[in-house]
Amino acid sequence: MTRENMVDYRAFRLGRLREPQFRHLTYLLFWPVYGLAFLAVERIFVRDSYFPIHCALDDYIPLMEYFLIPYLFWFVFLVGIHLYTLLYDVPAFVKMEKFIIISYSIAVLVYLLFPNCQQLRPAEFARDNLFTRFLAHFYQFDTNTNVCPSIHVIGSVAVVLGAWNARGLSTVGWRWAFGITGFLISISTVFLRQHSVLDLLAAIPVCLIAYYFAYVKTGEKNR
Fold it and tell me: With a threshold of 0.90, does the pTM exceed it?
């Protein structure tokens, strides 16, 4: 691993945020903004009715509670790639953050203009185990609104692209590892009855738009 794109954060102070060495950290300011925006569409702009997202294929997908493992791993996936690129490849971090800012902003805008929900969660579980018990509590915490397009899928794509573009992770082995993990996380959303298949498909054009502006238009395609 070369030190070409590494930053010595020990010298960082808030007053130095605008300096070229640390300016990339300003992209992290998007996360609290996104959190507040998502909270607003979830808790403040509550609608009397939401459009249910459903397709025939959803009815054939069984609940498989063990997909809770990749579903929750998404949080580690997302935080991990941020830490890695911040430490070892700042240009990859910047491009990934641009992708996230564009795609997440589009998703929140869709939630605001097209309030939607899913009605796929089971009334009761066929099995009683640690995973279904956790899932029951998770259902109570996580609302079934604002699901299309899926942020879980968009975030997974962001991590995969970030890894494929980062030095040290762009080898064939790492590409397969990140690609398979991203795929498992994405399909976990439908096997946990958190999303419709349509939510996954809707994430595709959002990701393509974000990819174009974050990677292609700048002329900085994946290495």
Answer: yes
